[in-house]
Amino acid sequence: MRVLGRYVRRLLWSRLAAVLFALASLIILIDFLADGDQVLAASSEVARPIARYVVLRLPDTLAIAIPIAGLIAGMLVYAELMIRHELTIVFMASVSRGRLMLMMLPAAVVLGGLQFVVEDQAVPAASAKLRAWGIGDYRVPETQDLSWTRVGPDLVRFQAVSKKQNALTDVTIHRRDNNGDVIEVIDAERALFTDGEWHLEGVRRSVGAEAEPQHLDTLPWPSGPLPRLLPKAGVAPDDRPSSELTKIIARGGIGDRPLYVYKLTLYDRTAHPVVTILLVLMGASLARPGSRRLRIGLFIAAGIGIGVLCWMLSQFMSSIGELGLLPPLYAAWAPALMTAVVAGMGMVYENPGRLWAR
Question: How far is the C-alpha of 238 from the C-alpha of 284, rounded, in Å?
């Protein structure tokens, strides 16, 4: 069993490397055709900006390509075993599909872990450098005099952030209730972050329908944002590491997205690697002994088709979750559960009594 396991994993890694390289190269080439003029215009050189662009686009490309490459590589491994009649010998030796899955599981887990690291660490780091570079979709608009952001349920407008990120000027806070209705408006000349808390100065406060606003010298702002998150308030949730997402959720949200979008992104970080693992293992559940070309062709087509549908379902559910039509936890994990059901049905289709038999 150990020899067979090493053999199957070696086949998987070699096919995975080839497929992942081909997919990543194709995606980066398409991206460069769209943004190449900006890349070359940003420097008088040619090779260096192209190399820099490829390196910075690689993490986001890998995040897209890893699950698809894992699916295709897994199907190719079992297709080769079928062509060489090795799969027939394996099943004749009473090795079940469950055992085959367990043999590939370590490699699938490593691949899923790689995807998590890429999405959680490499993508945010590369995105920050692309925003600073101002290339393609990462081009930052010209600096505006006023900035708007969500802070929990409230809407906050401010004019400038100090270099130490502990002071704001020309602050307006629109406090809202659970229904989104504005219940209070606070205008302040400045906001200072001292002793772990924000304090407003030069305050003009309007509560409800009161005719006369209140004028205060200072006013505590305990629900204010974390100062270190302010410079990146407009950064998309996908471009933030899990540590930042956790802090934003704990503070009730910040930026221009609702709180549930940050929760969905955090749940997706753990659900996506699980989907990738299941896609890699999909081949073991669908493989059938035989070396006829038609059978092998149908096996590859069916496996890749089912896997791509599961991957597309994951993307679709995330889009639905971003619209607030589904709870974040369900939108993130439903595709993983459905992919597991599909793989499980393939395993028990022929011999349910020998699922884990040796």
Answer: 32
The candidate with the shortest Cα–Cα distance to 110, out of 343, 315, 282, 276, is 276
pLDDT at 269 over 50: yes
SS3 content of the chain, % helix, strand, coil (to 5): 65, 15, 20
The domains located in the chain, with CATH, are: 2-138+260-354 (no CATH), 153-222 (2.60.450.10)
- The SS3 assignment for 177 reads coil
Amino acid in position 204: R
Angstrom distance (rounded) from CA 70 to CA 12: 9
Strands 160-161 and 167-176, how do they pair?
antiparallel
- Burial letters for 275-290: b for 16+ Cβ neighbours within 10 Å, e otherwise? bbbbbbbbbbbbbbee
pTM of the full predicted structure?
0.79
Angle of helix 293-322 relative to helix 259-286, nearest 10 degrees, comes to 170
pLDDT band at 356 (very low <50, low <70, confident <90, very high): very low
- Among 13-17, 215-219, 253-257, 261-265, which stretch is predicted with the lowest mean pLDDT? 253-257
Do 226 and 251 contact (CB within 8 A), yes or no?
yes
Both structure tokens of 284? 């073991």
Residues 98-145: tens digit of each pLDDT:
788 888 889 999 999 999 999 999 999 998 888 888 776 666 555 455
- Rounded (10°) CA dihedral 143, 145, 146, 149: 20
Tokens 């802090």 belong to residue? 247
Residue labelled with tokens 């390509």: 65
97 within 8 A of 91, measured Cβ to Cβ: no
